[in-house]
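quick q for whoever's on today - can somebody do inverse folding on this one?? i tried earlier but teh output was garbage lol. tokens:
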């Protein structure tokens, strides 16, 4: 199960509403007010490798793909 979407599991539980309620109660991620999981990449939604300087809010992989379009140059 990925941290981006826990609702993928609902396909099997749609026929069993009681079990689905119990699943949601115990397995839904808790709402966070601070921490690393609040900062997500704007393009892909990744949590790790987040670049927030200059208000970019991209993960390192997406930044690498779009760096030239954003106006950054690679010097080495």
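ok took a stab at it. sequence:
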């Amino acid at each position: 199960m990925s941290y981006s979407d826990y609702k993928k599991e609902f396909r099997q539980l749609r026929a069993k509403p009681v079990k689905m309620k119990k699943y949601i109660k115990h397995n839904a991620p808790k709402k966070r007010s601070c921490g690393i999981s609040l900062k997500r990449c704007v393009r892909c939604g990744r949590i790790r490798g987040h670049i927030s300087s200059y208000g970019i809010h991209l993960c390192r992989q997406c930044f690498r793909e779009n760096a030239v379009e954003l106006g950054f140059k690679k010097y080495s």
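fwiw The chain has a mean pLDDT of 86. also The CA atoms of residues 41 and 58 lie 4 Å apart. so keep that in mind when u check it
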